[in-house]
Amino acid sequence: MSSESNYALLHNGQKMPLVGLGTWKSEAGQVKDAIKYALSVGYRHIDCATAYSNEAEVGEAFLETVGDDKIVKREELFVTSKLWNTKHHPEDVEPALKKSLDDLKLDFLDLYLMHWPHAFKRGDNLFPKNPDGTMRYDYIHYKETWKAMEKLVAKGLVKSIGLSNFNSHQIDDVISIASVKPAVLQVECHPYLAQNELIAHCNHRGLVVTAYSPLGSPDRMWKHPDEPVLLEETIIKKLAEKYSKSPAQLLLRWQVQRKVAVIPKSVTPARILQNFQVFDFSLTEEEMRSIGNLNKNWRYIVPMVMVDGKPVARDAGHPLYPFNEPY
Ligand code: A2P
Description:
Shape: globular
Helix content: 25-40%
Radius of gyration: 19 Å
Strand order of the largest sheet: 3-4-5-6-9-10-11-12
Strand content: 15-25%
Bound molecules: adenosine-2'-5'-diphosphate
C-alpha cells in the first residue's frame, strides 16, 4: 500500500489503508490462516473486535508475522479493535482495551472504536439477557465512555479513537465534549445503503468513514429469504464484466474511489486476494453515480434476539439506539 490513493488520511496524520481484512464471522480455526495469507499478499489493515470472540486467534497470526524480523513491521500495520457494549462504564474501558491488546499480542492499537452508542449490562457476558430473552441494557451515556477512551490516547495505548454505528446527532454530541476528536466512523455501507448524507456529515466534521459489510454480508445470520442480494445486482454484474473484475471487486472499487475504506471479510485465499486488487482500474463518474443510485436505505445488519420463539430487534428498545434517525 504505497501509492497515495491507497489510504485515507486521518485528522491526526495517521494513514489508514483503504482496504482492510474484516474478521467478523471468521471462525476459530480459519481466521489465523486468513490473516497470515492477507498479510502475505499485501494487506496492512486488519479490523477486529472483542465481540467477534476471535481476537486470541488473530493474535496468534500477529505473533507469527508481525515484528522487525518478520514479514510485517508493526509500524506498517494498521489494527483496529472495538470496545464492546458491556464495557462502557469508564472504569471498564482501559481493562477492556488491555484484554484486546493481550489477546492480539500487541502493545498498542492504531484505532479503537466504540462499537455501539448503547450499553449492555456491565460484566463479562457479552450478550447479557433478561429471562424473557430480551437484552439487559445499561444506561451509561456514550459521552462518559468517550472521556475514558480519550485517556487511552494520552497513555499511548491507542493512536486514534473513533465510533461505530453512531448516527449524525450522536457523532456531533461526542464532538461537543471531545478533547480528542473521533477519527473514524465505521458503519454498514454498500450501494443499497449508500450513506451519502452520513458520509458528507463525517467528511465535514473531519472523520473518515469505513464501510462494514461492503459485500452485503452474505454469510450473516437472520437473512430474509426475499432480501435483495447485492452480489447478484444486474448493474454490478454488468460493470464487473466490462472491467473483467468480479462483482465483489466492483463493490469495493466504488467505495475506495470515493475514499470510503472497506473491510470485506473472507477466509478464502482467492477472495482475500481479489478483494485487495481494486486499485488497478477506475469507474467513470457516470458509473459511480449509477452504482450510488442503487441506494434504497436497505440495512442488512440489524442484530436480533429470539423472544417467545420469534426474532425481534435486539437493541431497538434502548434510548440510544442509533438507527431511529434518518442518518
Ligand atoms: P468467505 O469468508 O467464505 O470467503 P461482508 O464483508 O460484506 O460481511 O461479506 C463477507 C461474506 O462475503 C463472506 O461470506 C465471504 O465468504 C464472502 N466473500 C468475501 N469476498 C468475496 C468475494 N470476492 N466474492 C464473493 N464472496 C465473497
